[in-house]
Amino acid sequence: MYVLRRRTRIEIWAPAKLNLFLEVLGRRADGFHEMETLMASISLFDHLTFTASEHSDLQLSCRWATRVSNSADVETLPTGQDNLVIRALDALRQASGAQAGLSVQLVKRIPTAAGLGGGSSDAAAALVAANLIWNLNWSTERLSEIAATLGSDIPYFLWGHAAVCRGRGEIIDPLTTSWRQHLVVIRPPEGLSTPTVFRQVEISPTPNRIEPMLACLRGRRDREIASHLFNRLQSAAARVSPWIERLQSEFDRLDVQGHQMSGSGSSYFGLCHSARHANRVSKLLQSRCPGYVFPTRTLPGVFERCTGSNN
Ligand code: C5P
Known about the structure:
By secondary structure, this protein is α+β, with helices and mostly antiparallel strands. Helices cover 32% and strands 29% of the residues.
């Protein structure tokens, strides 16, 4: 995430993520699944503006960015207590004893029910902003504990732009990598529910290993990354939505380096050689498939927090 501190407000650009590798290792007694996944953030951002409130209320206004609402079948956004941003602020207030309110304006670009982590990234942004505005001085470790109670993907967004995530997703091992990848992403007209997809997953007695992909990243063998793409949830999602197989065959016809579904879907992505290639593939896909299509690239692995104080 990118954080900009202004005099009277904090602005945060909260990125989407993709899962380049995702293996499900087992079912747990608490209803979750043990997993191992490699997540990387991409240059598609929700934008959040946080302003200290004179009252003790937590207020959220939320809208789709014009480009998204014009080009996709967008879902209605929750603005009340059921929005993860409000739940995150509420949880932090209760845990810290803070009494102050906060007003949040959220402009969404990251499609929902897409496996891109948009809601989780927004919630992580809310924790970071409230920590600053309420002068709590909590460490990332402490914010992570709250984040994990709200959603398995949320801690990842507090730690960086690339990480291996284990447990139910909340145990984060950040990666510093110089790997930059151009991609094209599509969110078909139908989203997918994470619990529904997890219910369909078949756990393999011989799980795939993440190490070969990590070795490529560490050894800067970028061209080999495509051959290690893997997502155990993809076949599960394909049993729930016909879009997954349709997108798989569309991408088979494109000259991308490799392709797969992200997270629990329904978004699907392809690896491209360059920005030009990603733009070309994006246009081609747009002409063939309904949905929200965009070219993008991974963010630098190192976490950057920018601070500024202009107005
Ligand atoms: O943690 P989060 O709220 O994102 O999870 C949503 C649902 O996805 C869970 O209630 C669970 O059904 C499923 N899930 C899972 N194993 C995980 C993460 C999520 O079964 N590791």
